[in-house]
Amino acid sequence: MRVVLSIRLATTSPTNSVLIVIAMEAEAKPFVEHLDLLKDDNFFPSHVPFHAFSGTHNGSRVTVVTNGKDHIYETGVDNCGTVPAAVVSFLALEKLKDVPSLVLINAGTCGGFQRKGAAIGDVFLTTGVANHDRRIPIPDFIPYGVGKLDTKVSVLNMAAALGFKTGVCTTGNSLDKTEEDDKHMLANDASVKDMEAAAIAWSCALHQVPYLGLKVVTDIVDGNFATQDEFLENLHTASQSLQKALPNVLEYIVGKQHHEL
Ligand code: ADE
């Protein structure tokens, strides 16, 4: 394991392969269609619900993975939250473990905090991730529960070049929030809130692959409207906006070495 990690860290090849993890089908569809990516039915083991689409864009290999639908409770909704997020990204990173200059982008929707300057439709690059619902009040476990991971890629330059905002993404397993969540999201200094980022970044840390979060705001967490209503109202527009933002991010990172990002 140590050898693999040091090979990854020492890579000097320009980034030419990007893994894009998108939880929901509706979020992924416009981008997959825009890039003419093809479904790869051999990417994941046949018993998992996840989907993979691949192709090339501007000379770079692009793989998009999504969580697929829930077949266990037979609800047919998209799998979401930290469990599918960690597993889909772990399996995809294992599959691509021999790619030396891989970057993972977690693209999707998020709630935004107006106290941090977020507005509906804004695109954020995440400077770091943390959990707000892993409360383990035993001193040694507290930092583990929060699971803070700083983004190793310098997103400030990229955000300035592409006109995006930046900030920490706080992750939990609920679309809504409790008062206790509020305290922890504030402590995490979060600009945006989602249900996947910290789990995906954890899988990336295990594989020593740089993690990059690209999030479009569908609802205001500290606003006056019910999250689920705002989310559903803005999901389609946000997915279109992801489709526009993602190719710009690819263009920015492809061809650069990890330390140049
Ligand atoms: N995805 C979009 N909006 C969200 C929110 N408010 N919380 C968690 N995930 C989200």
From TrEMBL:
InterPro entries from the UniProt entry: MTAN, Nucleoside_phosphorylase_d, Nucleoside_phosphorylase_sf
Q: So which domain of life are we looking at?
A: Eukaryota
Q: Name one Pfam family in it.
A: PNP_UDP_1
Which GO biological-process labels does this protein carry? L-methionine salvage from methylthioadenosine; nucleoside metabolic process
Q: List the Gene Ontology MF annotations in alphabetical order.
A: methylthioadenosine nucleosidase activity
SUPFAM superfamilies in alphabetical order: Purine and uridine phosphorylases
- The Nucleoside phosphorylase domain covers 18-249
Its protein name is: Nucleoside phosphorylase domain-containing protein
